[in-house]
Specification:
This protein has a two-stranded antiparallel ribbon with strand order 1-2. It contains ten helices and two strands, in the order ααααααββαααα. Helices cover about 70% and strands about 5% of the residues. The protein is mainly alpha-helical and about 250 residues long. Strand 1 and strand 2 form a beta hairpin. The longest helix is centred in the middle third of the chain and has 24 residues. Bound molecules: cytidine-5'-triphosphate and the ligand C/C(=C\CO)CCC[C@H](C)CCC[C@H](C)CCCC(C)C. Ligand LZ56GOFG binds next to helix 1, helix 2, helix 3 and helix 5. It is found in: Plastid, Chloroplast membrane. It catalyses: phytol + CTP = phytyl phosphate + CDP + H(+). Its EC number is 2.7.1.182. It comes from Tetradesmus obliquus (Green alga).
Amino acid sequence: MRTAVCSIAWVKIFDRLKRAGVLEQKLSRKLVHITTGPIFVLTWLFFSDAPYARFIAAAVPCLNGIRLLAVGSGLISNPGLVNSMSRSGDKAELLRGPLYYIAVLAAVTVLFWRDNPAGAITVSMMCGGDGLADIVGRRFGTGKLPWNSNKSWAGSAAMFFAGMAMACGYFWLFCSLGYFECFPLQLVLPYLAVVCGACTLVESLPVNSWFDDNLSVPLVAAGVSMLVLPLAAAAAHGCSLPQQQHVLQMLHIG
Ligand SMILES: Nc1ccn([C@@H]2O[C@H](COP(=O)(O)OP(=O)(O)OP(=O)(O)O)[C@@H](O)[C@H]2O)c(=O)n1
Ligand SMILES: C/C(=C\CO)CCC[C@H](C)CCC[C@H](C)CCCC(C)C
């Protein structure tokens, strides 16, 4: 309940800052994008160990989703929310990017929760990575990517390193709190780099008009994490490359 109230208050704070002229619309929207997901992941730490805790936590994005559905479809009028969450001021936009974002938060909460790093990695790439790509790319993105003139090397580099830094932070935090097995960070880093690299590549493709970044990036982050994290675990337990391939075969991937 407290988290649900805080989520509304958090979005309102950015709306006020935008109205006061402290933040411009695009930046305010991106800061909401960058901060809400990662703060929500931190609230997971306040839940009990009960098996149903993840479902209670997932109620927060679900309630926000119902609110977006109601406003986006015109059932409820909330011009403030429409202005701060949409690019063009069109309420129907709430039913795309922002709704996908919330659906991803609900899905990773239920599917991965605190015991699978894939969840925190997915949120890191969708929020920290994709969000910073926009902020850095718009300001310093003069060198454009050869395969997409809308995206830049600076934006993609920011996405890769910001996503990776955030994922490492969560990895360290969740390990120190005993939610998943601690491996040396230098061992996990190459595997994490594969996940972040794949997400960065997908985000850079010129497919955004029909495949929203808030869907493509999390899908790739979760999928590749599930593929490489067992390998990282196997390597941490001293398995050789052939043994790691055996892990893949056991997962029906090799
Ligand atoms: N790898 C990237 C990603 C983004 N950008 C910059 O950030 C802007 C917005 O990118 P993006 O978020 O993909 O665009 P939209 O989907 O239109 O915006 P939003 O995510 O806010 O919906 C781009 O035009 C570009 O200037 C960039 O330079 N390099
Ligand atoms: C603008 C957004 C995405 C477009 O790319 C982000 C939309 C954010 C939502 C409207 C609010 C989401 C709230 C979270 C589910 C919970 C946050 C909890 C917390 C305590 C801040």
